[in-house]
Amino acid sequence: MITKLAFVIDASVALAWCFEDETNVFADKVLERLVDSAGVVPLIWPLEVGNALIGAERRGRLSQAESERFLELLRQLPIRIESASLTRMFGEVITLAREQNLSTYDAIYLDLAMRSGLPLVTLDEALHQAAIRCGVKVFPAQDRGKG
User: Fold this and answer.
1) 116 CB contacts (<8 Å, ≥6 apart)?
2) Close Cβ partners of 87 (under 8 Å, ≥ 6 residues apart)
3) pLDDT tens-digit profile of 34-51?
4) What is the pTM of this model?
């Protein structure tokens, strides 16, 4: 049995798959890697992605049908949701957010990458830099530019 490679995916990468004006070579490569790899996300990820889609619908950037098609795509991807205890979220994650000057939303991705030992994929520069400072592998470090 071949064990799949895995990596932590933040919402910025997933949302780049949805919006044409956010198309990104890096995000496209991450999506391609999911053919032979697995994504791991924190429990907040579906809510964060869903909130962005609802916001896009409300602004007329995306139709409900387009949102539903995108959600179906996400459901078909090999993405596993990991939870963290309330104690961890109110403890280590908030501490990490303070130490790294991140939102708690971003810190939960960094915490998951640190706990799991998995690389982190993000388009968020502050999260990317925090991961590097914390010794988390950022996957891949090159090719993060737009285009």
Assistant:
1) 6, 8, 40, 82
2) none
3) 989 999 999 999 999 999
4) 0.89
Rounded distance between C-alpha atoms, residue 104 and residue 19, angstroms? 25
* pLDDT per residue as tens digits for the range 69-83: 999 999 999 999 999
The three-state DSSP-derived secondary structure of the chain is CCCCEEEEECHHHHHHHHCHHHCCHHHHHHHHHCCCEEEEEECCHHHHHHHHHHHHHHCCCCCHHHHHHHHHHHHHCCEEEECCCHHHHHHHHHHHHHHHCCCHHHHHHHHHHHHHCCCEECCCHHHHHHHHHCCCCECCCCCCCCC
3.20.20.30, 3.60.21.10, 3.40.50.1010, 3.30.390.10: CATH of 5-133: 3.40.50.1010
